[in-house]
């Protein structure tokens, strides 16, 4: 009865300064609003919503468009702490831009997905997604339903993937067949800050991957490749170390700087007396008691050092620190030590040396020691800048790339570049099919889609043609960033591909005198290119499905 009475009294109440607000009264006559702040929420529906979403995505795509290709420009980004990053890596640019628009965040996540899965092509995938949405906007203005646009894009994407698989070449990869992998790595590094030392950097990346590759499973564990940054020196000083490099020094300045035929105890237990779990206090009221406590503590340290020495260890690597007493005893017993080594580095050292990580002294034994040919403390630059290099390890499955450069920003960008090259080499080992860059693959796919669109008798053919036009954005951006006329370069490459039936013709960004990307040696992995097309299509489809945007109320 109370509910019926309240429904009978439901009416629209005029709120001051607002429109009609739905109000209902309870059984005691007290009014309450059904949906709070409903009149203050901003809402965009239909074509306006599509346009707002597409414009937001286009703004992000325009930001990274100028960074595409071997002549792409760098961006300088400053975070709230004042740290500066200079890069042309699409994923890094978008990650540090602090985008607030929800649709623009989808493109940031798109770039991150490409980076996580493939490692390269992060700029191209965002440019392609932005171009697809630009083409979709024209179709929506002509009255074509978004669902039909999405279906046409899906059809076109499958045609493009089939065309890529048809024009792909298979190359030989292996520890004895490195040239194709080096060429692919050089293509990846061609647009980076390391391009002046292209061949050297590509060889470092390929050697690192080949050192840890499992050729039977056709896979690579990237976590076994450690990257160590060292600002200072020249970029060409970047080198691969067959072993582990840690940014530490020996704990005592008088310990030997080189240990040959090292037997290494890898400890995660600290060199210190045991501590009770509960709170405690010690009252000392005489000199004898103090001397007794000091002697007991010294005995703890002596027993620990003796346990290590009894196993035959000649070097200690400890995850924790130790005080001066323990350090002195280690030095006095001719037992070099390295302290404060990180957990990830401990795992790599254990893998490389064949040792076991020991959590407590009572479990230490000779069979758990790792071995290495030499453990050396080397100096870079000033006397304070030292590193420990572990070489001659029995297991070759852990390596370190020491990245050098003029300053911190250059070294960080060089590390990102090498990471991309390592990922692309890994992809080539997994799937040894390649397509050719310079926009040639996109042009070949575009021509195949246009040919296939004529066979489709429904509205989707318009969306397929739009997809083909969107693919042209990649070679146009490459030409524009290289100082060439974009439309003329694209028209020339397209007409030559049609006349000569040569899918390797693209945009000559490096002005080498030939547009044949096979002759130029511009290799891209097939898996990376297919992933680009599919991810860009999926994001465009996701954005085109949004037809209603409700934003929260704005409080003044």
Describe this structure in words.
The protein has 556 residues and is an alpha+beta fold. It has helices at 2-8, 46-65, 90-96, 102-117, 122-141, 146-167, 179-189, 198-212, 287-310, 324-332, 343-353, 408-430, 440-453, 460-471, 473-481, 486-500, 517-520, 526-544, and strands at 11-14, 20-25, 31-33, 42-45, 75-78, 84-87, 169-170, 213-214, 219-220, 225-231, 239-241, 243-246, 258-267, 315-318, 337-338, 357-358, 370-379, 386-391, 399-405, 433-436, 523-525, 548-551. The strands form seven sheets. Strands 12, 13, 14, 15, 16, 17 and 18 form a seven-stranded mixed sheet that branches. A three-stranded antiparallel sheet has the order 1-2-3, covered by helices on one side. Strand 13 (258-267), helix 9 (287-310) and strand 14 (315-318) form a beta-alpha-beta unit. The longest helix has 24 residues, at 287-310.
């Amino acid at each position: 009865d109370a509910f019926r009475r309240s429904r009978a009294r439901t009416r629209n109440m005029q709120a001051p300064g607002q429109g009609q607000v739905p109000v209902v009264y309870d059984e005691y006559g007290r009014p309450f609003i059904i949906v709070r702040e409903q009149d203050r929420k901003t809402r965009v529906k239909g074509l306006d919503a599509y346009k707002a979403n597409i414009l937001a995505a286009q703004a992000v795509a325009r930001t990274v468009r100028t960074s595409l290709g071997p002549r792409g420009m760098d961006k300088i980004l400053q975070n709230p702490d004042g740290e500066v990053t200079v890069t042309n890596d699409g994923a890094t640019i978008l990650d540090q831009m602090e985008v607030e628009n929800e649709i623009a965040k989808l493109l940031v996540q798109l770039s991150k997905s490409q980076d996580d899965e493939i490692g390269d092509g992060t700029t191209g995938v965002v440019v392609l997604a932005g171009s697809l949405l630009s083409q979709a906007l024209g179709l929506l203005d002509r009255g074509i339903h978004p669902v039909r646009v999405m279906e046409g894009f899906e059809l076109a994407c499958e045609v493009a993937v089939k065309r890529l698989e048809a024009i792909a070449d298979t190359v030989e990869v292996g520890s004895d067949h490195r040239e194709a992998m080096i060429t692919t790595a050089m293509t990846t590094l061609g647009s980076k800050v390391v391009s002046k030392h292209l061949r050297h950097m590509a060889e470092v990346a390929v050697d690192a991957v080949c050192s840890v590759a499992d050729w039977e499973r056709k896979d690579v564990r990237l976590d076994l490749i450690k990257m160590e940054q060292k600002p200072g020196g020249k970029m060409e000083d970047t080198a691969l170390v067959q072993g582990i490099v840690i940014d530490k020094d020996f704990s005592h300045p008088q310990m030997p700087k080189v240990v040959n035929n090292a037997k290494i105890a890898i400890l995660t237990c600290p060199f210190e007396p045991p501590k009770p779990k509960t709170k405690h206090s010690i009252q000392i009221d005489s000199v004898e008691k103090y001397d007794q406590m000091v002697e007991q503590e010294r005995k703890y340290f002596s027993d620990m050092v003796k346990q290590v020495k009894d196993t035959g260890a000649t070097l200690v690597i400890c995850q924790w620190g130790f005080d001066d007493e323990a350090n002195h005893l280690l030095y006095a017993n001719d037992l070099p030590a390295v302290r404060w080594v990180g957990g990830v580095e401990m795992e790599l050292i254990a893998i490389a040396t064949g040792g076991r990580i020991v959590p407590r002294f009572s479990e230490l034994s000779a069979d758990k020691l790792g071995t290495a040919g030499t453990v050396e403390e080397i100096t870079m630059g000033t006397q304070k800048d030292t590193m420990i290099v572990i070489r001659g390890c029995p297991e070759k499955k852990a390596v370190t790339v020491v990245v050098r450069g003029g300053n911190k920003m250059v070294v960080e960008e060089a590390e990102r570049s090498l990471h991309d090259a390592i990922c692309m080499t890994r992809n080539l080992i997994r799937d040894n099919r390649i397509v050719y860059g310079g926009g040639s693959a996109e042009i070949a796919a575009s021509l195949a889609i246009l040919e296939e669109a004529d066979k489709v008798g429904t509205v989707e053919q318009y969306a397929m043609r739009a997809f083909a036009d969107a693919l042209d954005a990649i070679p146009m951006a490459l030409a524009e960033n290289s100082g060439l006329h974009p439309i003329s370069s694209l028209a020339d490459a397209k007409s030559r591909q049609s006349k000569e039936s040569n899918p390797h013709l693209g945009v000559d960004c490096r002005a080498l005198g030939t547009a044949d990307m096979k002759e130029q040696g511009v290799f891209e992995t097939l898996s990376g290119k297919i992933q680009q097309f599919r991810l860009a299509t999926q994001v465009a489809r996701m954005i085109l499905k949004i037809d209603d945007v409700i934003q929260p109320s704005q409080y003044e």
